[in-house]
Design brief:
The chain has 473 residues and is α+β, with helices and mostly antiparallel strands. The chain is elongated. One of its GO terms (molecular function) is toxin transmembrane transporter activity.
Length: 473
């Protein structure tokens, strides 16, 4: 019995409207309209007269809008050879005027690869503001979509209004009868029909008394029988029990309705709670995924920074190693150059010493010969002037080091060409200057060239031993 009641409880009356047939009819009509619409186009052949005139050629050359790298715009018309530089306002005005005259005008935007994308978009915006956009607008499709939706809505509304009403009244009785409410469709229909018929029944009239039959052989003589009064008329007992008319219990119906409402409300609350829990679970999962992605991004960023720092450290170490290597190479070359310079200096000193010895011998020989020839006494004065001129020229280019005292002398061997061009300047071995002083005096002699030559041709010599005196300028 309980199993039967449980099966009955799972059966519930459905009073919702079934819109599936209406949707099927609508889809069938839509397909019919789509198939028959192209067939309604009526066409017929027309014989046009022939003409010997040539057809007019329509020039559809596009307008070219060029965008330069600096954002400057230029417009090239079909009949123009060169583009014309225009501003955005001038371009919009030109395009608006051309579009008003020719609706089929085409515009091409040309730009170099180096032009920024924002500048090209700005030029396209100017062209759109000039109403040259050839793309179809979305106004007509939107209007057609709205009309289709309105048509579908009207169909559903009409179907709902024309559908029969199905009102289901709650049955009366105590909660123990609640199980009998969940019946099958046929049983529920029979119960509703019986209820409606019971409501239509009227009160039965009082029964009419019938005479009791008497056997014919025992019929007494007729006796006057008093007419029975209506109120005293005997009521014969009914052979069958009258069917009880079910009277609905309003109180039980209200209780059942309240119970159904409370159960429905509890069910809705449980459904809402379940949905909220599902939403919370989904949100929690989304937050966990977001946090996991954030942690992964931070980890990747930290790894990238660590890798970049490692690369920078390796690059710095490599650069430092290359720098140290270059410094070592420079030091080695400098030491090698110093060694070579010392060797060259030593060789030059040896050569200068040999030349000085040869020059001294030659000067002694010439000095002994000149008095015998009866030469004048002006050559000594000219030599002194020549030496003084060289002293002044070299002193003008010399910066005295602090280690060289004033008045100190140093002999320098100068190898020169006619005209005063110095080929080499070497400090003699007996020069008291320190190393810095020697380098400074050699540099001063080289910087002082050309040495004095005009007026001193008589005393000029390719190799001279010049004694320099340390002085302040």
């Amino acid at each position: 019995m309980s199993a039967a009641i449980g099966r009955r409880k799972r059966r519930k009356l459905k009073s919702e409207i079934n819109v599936v047939p209406y949707i099927d009819v609508m889809l069938v009509l839509l397909i019919i309209f789509m198939v028959t619409a192209p067939m309604l186009t009526l066409t017929f052949d027309v014989d046009l007269p022939n003409s010997n005139a040539k057809a007019l050629e329509s020039k559809q050359d596009p307008l070219i809008v060029s965008v330069r790298q600096d954002g400057q715009l230029s417009l090239k018309l079909p009949d123009a050879k060169e583009p014309t530089a225009v501003t955005a306002e001038e371009l919009q005005g030109h395009l608006s005027g051309i579009a008003a005259q020719d609706k089929d005008v085409r515009v091409i935007v040309a730009a170099d690869r180096a032009v920024a994308y924002e500048k090209v978009i700005a030029a396209m915006d100017v062209i759109k503001r000039a109403h040259v956009d050839k793309e179809p607008g979305w106004g007509q499709p939107l209007l057609l979509a709205v009309l289709v939706h309105l048509l579908v809505a009207l169909i559903f509304i009409g179907a709902w209004l024309w559908s029969p009403q199905r009102n289901t009244d709650a049955a009366a009785g105590d909660p123990s009868v609640e199980a009998s409410l969940a019946l099958s469709a046929s049983e529920a229909a029979a119960a509703r029909q019986a209820l409606r018929q019971s409501e239509k029944l009227e009160d039965l009239p009082p029964p009419v008394a019938e005479p009791i039959p008497v056997p014919e052989d025992t019929i007494p003589p007729p006796q006057p029988i008093e007419e029975p009064r209506p109120q005293d008329a005997p009521t014969p007992q009914q052979q069958q029990a009258q069917e009880r008319v079910a009277q609905p219990d309003t109180k039980d119906q209200d209780a059942v309705s309240a119970l159904a409402i409370s159960q429905e409300k509890a069910k809705q609350e449980q459904e809402a709670k379940r949905r909220q829990e599902q939403i919370d679970l989904t949100e929690r999962k989304r937050q966990e995924e977001a946090e996991q992605k954030l942690r992964l991004a931070k980890q990747q960023e930290a790894d990238a920074k660590k890798k970049q720092a490692e690369q920078e450290r390796l690059a710095a170490d490599k650069a430092e190693a290359e720098k140290q290597k270059k410094i070592a190479d420079i030091r080695a070359r400098r030491e090698q150059a110093e060694k070579e310079a010392k060797l060259a200096e030593q060789k030059l000193r040896q050569v200068a010493a040999a030349r000085n010895a040869a020059g001294t011998a030659a000067a002694g020989a010439s000095g002994a010969a000149q008095p015998a020839a009866g030469g004048g006494g002006s050559s000594d004065d000219l030599s002194a002037k020549y030496a003084a001129a060289i002293q002044a020229k070299v002193l003008a280019q010399w910066v005295r080091p602090d280690s060289v005292p004033l008045g100190q002398r140093c002999q320098i061997t100068i190898n020169q060409l006619p005209g005063g061009t110095v080929r080499s300047a070497t400090v003699s071995a007996g020069c008291p200057f320190d190393e810095a002083g020697k380098r400074s005096i050699e540099a001063a002699v080289l910087n002082a060239q050309p040495l004095p030559y005009r007026g001193f041709e008589q005393v000029f010599a390719r190799t001279i031993n010049f004694t320099f005196t340390a002085q302040d300028r």
